[in-house]
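Lab notes, practical 5.
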Amino acid sequence: MRWARDRDLPVRRMPGGKQGTVFAYRVELDAWAHRPDAAAGEGPAPAPARPAAAEAAHGSDPGTGRRRGAAAGPLLTATLVLAAGAAALLWPVPAPRPRTVLPRDPATARAFVEARDLWARRTGADLDRAVALLDGVTRREPGFAPAHAALADAWLLKREYGITAGAAPFDRAERAARAALRLDPDAAGAIRALGFIAYWRDGDPARARAGFEHALRLAPDDAQTHFWYANFLADTGADARAQQAYDRAQLLAPGLAAVRVERAYADWLAGRDARARDALAALARQYPSDANLHLCLAWIAMGRGDAMAYARETALVARLRRDPELLARAAAVSGVASGGPAAVARAVVEQQRLELAANPDWGRQTPAFFASSLGQRDALLRLLREAEAHGERWYSAGILRRMAARWRGDAAVTALLTAVRRRSVPGA
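Output from the prediction step:
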């Protein structure tokens, strides 16, 4: 407690309880241990930890190394001493460059911590507030690289969760990430953000993979990087590697609903339909207000050609996100529901056509998938020919696999799908 107060030891307090329990992140302890002022302070330095051999001679438990009957306090103190003074012995990783973990101004530091907490909650209101706080932090301490990287994260989640549509969130995230890298070329969060942008905006899987893997080399225990890398791998068809990355993300961020939702969706991309539906149905009971979960259910419904279920799920997504444009589109589809599935299917495909006309840079893979799933061959052929003429290359392996299976034996569709399909993703 004294080191946290007097020497900025980066410990975090667990809420509630009577003991005042704290925890710390390894990367923050490493950075703190290598600060020039980490050992500064008044009073004598704590005694070094007792070597393991001496501990055993005094009656330690051979399974845990803890002295029989000893209190936990000295053990915790010894652990912190080792973390501060001998990190290289505990964790065989290269010593990081000294970094500022938090802004120096206490009020700015509190705003930064609050913003990161809001970002982790992943709701529209929380992400809006996180962006506002991080904008303030970057203005007050423009040289604090983590705030710029965190701002990139926040804008990308606003895009991913449909809170802010179009290209603007990607552009703002890229500006923030590059600002972080100008201040700190090894800012892993900023490199991860650029990897995300490279794939989901620019359609460049090779650059995306390089970015994610470089970020993991710099920060191997970053849950968000493992999570986004898993999503990238799942989308490009590298299922086994995606499952390993999801495992790592879940171990590092246990209980995070977003990872479980995306992992279930990855099961569907890999062809494990029943498993995906069961997992998402269970998650929907646990997290009924998760809009992204219902968006996944909408795509799964579309994959089986169920336009009515797709319309129900997207209407729910619109209400949960309180998105006026999405609400208007959902209302338009609901207005033709009395005409049955065929009328709903025509309305859904027409909406996709209008959206593509308004956003031509988005590519034609999504409307083509919709037309394919709903059996609208003429619309599918038109979209495929346009995609080929514009030099589009589609990467979503699970989506393409379903389209190919739906039209197996149709020479015209198969030839065009082959033309626009990217053969492989380098290194995936």
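Observations recorded by the TA: Residues 39-95 have pLDDT under 50 and may be disordered. The beta strands are 12-13, 22-23.
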